[in-house]
Amino acid sequence: MTVALTEQALLEHYVKKILAAPVYELAVRTPLQAAPALSEALGNRILLKREDLQPTFSFKIRGAYNKLVHLTAEQRTRGVITASAGNHAQGVALAARELGISASIVMPVTTPELKVLGVRNRGAEALLHGESFPFALAYALDLAERTGREFVSPFDDPDVIAGQGTVAMEILRQHPGRLDAIFVPVGGGGLIAGIAAYVKYLRPDVRIIGVESQHSACLQAALLAGERVTLPEVGTFADGVAVAQIGAHGLDICRFCVDEVMTVTNDQLCAAIKDIYDDTRSITEPSGALAVAGIKQYVARTGVRGETLVAIDSGANINFDSLRHVAERAALGVEDCVS
Questions:
Q1: Of 117, 169, 226, 282, which residue is the least packed, with the fewest Cβ within 10 Å?
Q2: Residues taking part in catalysis
Q3: In CATH, what number does 60-151 get?
């Protein structure tokens, strides 16, 4: 994938921001862990980037902290407001508490209780509004206008993107050898933009493959249309990526840095949750399992063997009472990948 000079300058800008992001004042460097059972089953070396091991059990703490730490003193005094399906919300709540900033967070009424409690237990105000993220976002933007609080985008912000890009910095340092592709879950595009910018600048040979829920495939729709589009509706099973429109800043990077975007079904996500559990004894939320579901579909479609493929295991905030449904649907997800 060739990159024009103006595009190269954009990547260089983000790489500098990623290298300077002080995320480790709160986030942790997560392991890049082998998945032996999945590797044997797929005939490729599968590595899991364990972002579910962050303090808020999601990668979102990286971008949230990087944004808040860059606020001016006057912005901190006014406080912040954001909208989130739950993971960014917990990241902002923890970052705000550590930095002494007042935080209000609008979350859809369908947000898992675990995530709502995670926000409130970290000292932030949780406001439930709307059936899905787009409604919560509109309400949060209105509140920001009326209250003067600084709006913190969950994905459409250069500082947030740079914070998420530290995931890629760790991957390349942890695995300097052969690396064929990184599979990245996609909601609003902040994570894939940060990872793609860093990897394509330093290792342009590594493929960046986005994985979306088929019920919220806003990046795929934007790339097909050549511009941002708003999906008429989104499904909420993979609530962490239930976004109707890709972020503008992220799309600027994804246009020339993302090699492929694929979609997976809910049943494939359930099967991937089981795969991750079998290898790690950890339980991933549906959006966190997108990358593994994508790898399985990719291998079944292309027949590749002997490659090194990384999956971003992006979060583990799932309600316990959802696990029965996940277990029941997992077998059907296996059939989806084979068919």
A1: 226
A2: 60, 314
A3: 3.40.50.1100
* Inter-residue contact 194 to 18 (CB < 8 Å): yes
In angstroms, rounded to a whole number, what is the distance separating the alpha carbons of residues 309 and 292? 10
| Nearest partner of 58 among 287, 251, 215, judged by Cα | 287
Among residues 265, 267, 329, 298, the alpha carbon closest in space to that of 42 is found at 298
**Predicted TM-score of the model (pTM):** 0.94
CB atoms within 10 A of CB 196: 29
d(CA 206, CA 208): 6
List of E strands, 265-332:
308-313
pLDDT at residue 271 is higher than 80:
yes
Start-end ranges of CATH 3.40.50.1100 in the chain? Answer: 5-57+158-338, 60-151
**What is the C-alpha separation between 127 and 324, in angstroms, rounded?**
28
Kindly write down the DSSP assignment for every residue of 196-249, as one continuous string. Answer: HHHHHHH-TTSEEEEEEETTS-HHHHHHHHTS----S----TTGGG--SS--HH
The total number of residues written for the chain in this structure: 339
- The encoded tokens of residue 201 equal 């600048």
Percent residues over pLDDT 90 in the chain: 88
DSSP codes joined into one string, 108-156: -TTS-HHHHHHHHHTT-EEEE-SSSHHHHHHHHHHHHHHH-PEE--SSS
CA torsion, points 295, 297, 299, 300, in degrees to nearest 10? 160
Tens digits of residue pLDDT in 175-205: 999 999 999 999 999 999 999 999 999 999 9
CA end-to-end span of the chain: 31
